Amino acid sequence: MERLSKLTAIMYSMGYLGIAILVQSTVKWYQFYYAPPELALDGLRILVPIGIVGLAMVAARIIDGVADPLVAYLSDQSKNKKGRRIPFILYGSVPLTVTYILIWFPPVAGESIINFIYLTVMLSLFFIFFTIVVAPYLALIVELTKTNKERINLTMLMAVTQILGVIIAEAGAAILINLYNFKVMGIVLGLLALASIILTPIFVREDLAEQTAISSINMFNSMKMTFTNKDFVYYLSAYMAVWFGINTLTISMPYIFEVLLDTPAETSGYVIAGAFLMALLFSPLVPRLTLKYSKKRVLFMAALFFAMIMASTAFFGTLLSYPLVVVIVVLSGLPLAVGFVVTNAMVADIAEQDSLKHGLRQEGMYFGAQGLVIKLVIALSSFITPMVFHTFGYTAENPLGLQLVGPMAAVIILISLMFLTKYSMAE
Fold it and tell me: Which of 43, 226, 237, 239 sits between 20 and 30 A of 306, alpha carbons compared?
């Protein structure tokens, strides 16, 4: 790192490990935990009907959507003596952990509307506190880095810790569920995540001089300026589509392994952990690729490759046997590595260019806007995926729903790439 000390870079990046643990384990397992297949191999009972369990995530994401621009704006405008970003991370990390743990403690042991209400409330609170921590955390990238090389190196470190967090969430959750239960998993992973996130406010110090650039622009004008930035919109189109695919794949994997491949759902955790291990190994190469070919081109090719992988899920358990499925899922780590390294760097580039153009520091709003649309996309995926299961089937006798969701996501990704070609920002 040229301007940023190695210790600060590492401690800042460690925060992403805990963030990844929380979000990956929640998105991966909440639906399976509350609405397992009727013949779940681990003896789980249905707590919420499959047809409406996705509505809990939709409602939570919509409620949380209000928090994204608000937190981003308050962070941009903050004059706290500890900085604009650090206080949000510091004071939001504990309630974030508590709400995560509570997700795995439903009030009723069997199927009940009370569980649906409880899940909706807990997910809503979890994602609100997630926004309070993550939006300011990501906005720090612009302040901590000043050159393209410095920025891509920092986001590479973040990608490494994020991938490690996902591996812990996938393999660690599978081990804890297999040995104990979901409640133990929630407590252990929650406390581990908290210990990681808290390292950022302890070791990172903000440059208080950055607060001198705070503007008096109101929140709605700030949002308008963000969403009318053409390069930001073109970038978001691809980012949203890829995340739709990632979330669809994450939700589907436990069902695909248990129903199509006739293996325990927890096995999917080990295989997906292998994909993220591949991403971990590939991540250090991504900065070199982006410096040679540009972030846009590298992201385009990665998204195209990921679309091909999503399309292939239609043949899991039929034309593609278990060993081939493992290979394909592990190879998905290559585009995932690119996504983890490149995307945050691209938003930081866009926010910095905007500040130079308008003389306003609103990087928080850019990351908040990204968080808002991605949460809505994940909510949409979380609603559509179980509805496809419910409509077309997700059983061994009628698995069409499981076979459709991957190709559906692939088509969405391919359409989004037409917009990404219009991204014009120089690097």
Answer: 226
